[in-house]
Amino acid sequence: MPTVLTICADCERQALRHPKRGKAVAEALTCLTRLLLGRKHLQGLQVARVTCLRNCPFGKICVALARGEREVRHHLAPGDDLDAVAAKLTGTARASRS
HSE on the CB side for 89, CA within 13 Å? Predict the structure, then answer.
């Protein structure tokens, strides 16, 4: 079963309507996709745009990485640490120490 990065088309369209924030969100999404494609175990990554029909926060894009039956979601914002988001989506994030 292929690994699929799902991007919510509605969230993306809504975020891109805002002139300044839209450009920043689009750049964050592009960088995140490149980071994921750069990982060896995700070389066959497929990207799909669908409507997720969830109540997503305004100005953020809902992304999900599905591998088999496991799916991890994140609401991507321009200020997010993209390395941390990529680690969260792939399941390689380390627990923070307190």
Answer: 29
* CA R_g for the chain: 13
CB 76 within 8 A of CB 15: no
CA atoms of 98 and 47, how far apart (whole Å): 36
SS3 of 49, please?
strand
- The CA-CA-CA angle for residues 94, 82, 21, to 5°, reads 145
Q: What is the pLDDT of residues 84-95, one digit of tens each?
A: 999 999 888 765
CA distance 12 to 74: 13
- Measured CA to CA, the distance from residue 84 to residue 96 in angstroms comes to 11
The answer to whether 3 and 42 are in contact (CB under 8 A) is: yes
Contact criterion met (CB below 8 Å) for 36 and 65: yes
Q: What is the pTM of this model?
A: 0.81
Residues 52 and 60 sit within 8 Å (Cβ to Cβ): no
